[in-house]
Amino acid sequence: MTDEQLKSLKAQLEQMMETLIQKQQNTRIVEPGEEVLSNHPAENASDLTEQTMELTLEGERDDELRLVQAALNRIERGTYGKCVVGGEPIPFERLEALPTADTCVAHAEQLTEQQKNRPVEEEVIRMNVDKPMKGVQGREGGEDSLDELLEEGSSDSPSDQ
């Protein structure tokens, strides 16, 4: 990679960083207890949806900002444009398309394939119906939990009588 190409990529990364920082500063997240509740549930739902979406975008911007900062650090150290896995040069075309790239295409594909092979959480973390828990008085599972609670009652109010 030529010095001119490196300067161009550095300028692109700096511009990306500036844009991300501006977006962070322009984002206003409502703090707990600060929200103004509407009388209409649909407005509350819309506000909550917008807030959730903004928090998600903020997290993505934080991740992108870390990637940009890491790329700028690699430029300063003189390691930018070299694959962090194998050490071979990353083609300029790849860096031009994705200035934060830290791996060559081959290693990026390997890493992506490894991530694809990660088990789906639902396959690993699920209720174990093959070996249910022993419940109160030898009952298994938790299917009778509501019945047990209702037998005890919830309060001494007339509605429970």
The tally of helices reads: 6
Strand percent estimate:
under 5%
Helix content: 55-70%
The main pleated sheet reads as: none
The name of the CATH architecture of the domain at 3-28 and 43-120 is: Up-down Bundle
Shape: elongated
Give me the CATH fold name of the domain at 3-28 and 43-120: Four Helix Bundle (Hemerythrin (Met), subunit A)
Are there runs of 5+ residues with pLDDT below 50, and where? none
Overall radius of gyration: 27 Å
Secondary-structure element string? HHHHHH
Number of strands: 0
Distance between the termini: 82 Å
CATH superfamily label of the domain at 3-28 and 43-120: DksA, coiled-coil domain
Structural class of the helix and strand makeup?
mainly alpha
Mean pLDDT across the residues is: 79
CATH class of the domain at 3-28 and 43-120: Mainly Alpha
Zinc finger (dksA C4-type): 83-107
Domain Zinc finger DksA/TraR C4-type: 78-105
Biased composition (Acidic residues): 143-154
Organism: Candidatus Kurthia intestinigallinarum
